[in-house]
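As a representative case, we now present a protein record of this kind.
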Amino acid sequence: MQQRAWRRRARPGRAREPRSQPPGGRGELSRTPSPPPPVPFLSLGRIALALRSPAARAPWAPCPRRRPAGSGPAVPSPSMEPGEPREARESGPGAETAAVPRWEEAKAFHDNLTPKKKPKSPKPQNAVTIAVSSRALFRMEEEQRIYTEQGVEEYVRYQLEHENEPFSPGPAFPFVKALEAVNRRLRELYPDSEDVFDIVLVTNNHAQVGVRLINSINHYDLFIERFCMTGGNSPICYLKAYHTNLYLSADSEKVREAIDEGIAAATIFSPSKDVVVSQSQLRVAFDGDAVLFSDESERIVKAHGLDRFFEHEKAHENKPLAQGPLKGFLEALGRLQKKFYSKGLRLECPIRTYLVTARSAASSGARALKTLRSWGLETDEALFLAGAPKGPLLEKIRPHIFFDDQMFHVTGAQEMGTVAAHVPYGVAQTPRRPAPTKQAPATQ
């Protein structure tokens, strides 16, 4: 019986050997020892090798069922319609192709869950630094009223109580968002370059108010890593240390201080109505005289009238004008524009500049254009209005910011929905008022 049981367990085609009997057992012949039982066909080693093979199925693929031999073709599931393609269940090219979309979806889902890595802040000496005050970037009228009426202690207490409430966007907010849009394009083309815009928040607010400012910046997903909070003192002395190319503030006295220090600066004003501006292209409009150029020509107009001015410009057509306070900022914009031009993106450049001047093209326009050429600069568009109002034209341009030295043009731009900035430079300015003795933390 034991030998029969062994024969039934033996593998087919393998020679049977006589089983040995222990001493004193049944029979007298000595027999060789029998081999151990064969390893089952589906051993753990074979399964491991199968899983390591290149054609192994994806981890989420269902395990295929083996049909008995001779059972005929597979019968479709009752829930499947005739002719409906059956989902691949076995490993092979079909399973790998089906796994690709699932993997891409899973990766996209994971990337959305993972916090995005912020770019590294550039070194100030390599970047185009734009310094903005807290009141230029955000609307803080209520907070300023509390400071004026109730004092600094109540002002700080109010800010601490509301530090989790973000400020509303201010007049410089669309301009800052456009700067960041340009930075994204630059980093796509030049991943290792530090020649980008660097935005610095410069304010004479108390340091404790900085928590609310940080929360507001994070709320709007702005990339502003450099802060300067001076606790009531003037921040103008720090602008050169930041290598500032442009300073925007709501405080005209601070702007005058910056101009006196040789820093490009302007007092920014909110428009009278909201106008949609471009989200992908930074648009900056400049006046000419006393903004890009010196006030030489305006002095002649004030002293001798327009006729003498036209004669003077014609006689000095080939003599470049002296530079104005914002010439350096236009130069910085041109440097970044050339980085796009070198990639063949002149027509798709995300920076566009405009010269919007009251000069007449025929009588005095040539000197303005030749001056820019002598500096190695240019604007994408030059608009000579011959004394006409600038507001309607700016309404069509929709710049993120417009710089002018005369409040008459600034007010006209505001009325048409343009964010305008006053450059307090040149003969057209009113005499300076005496500086106030009390400095408010939020007066920028």
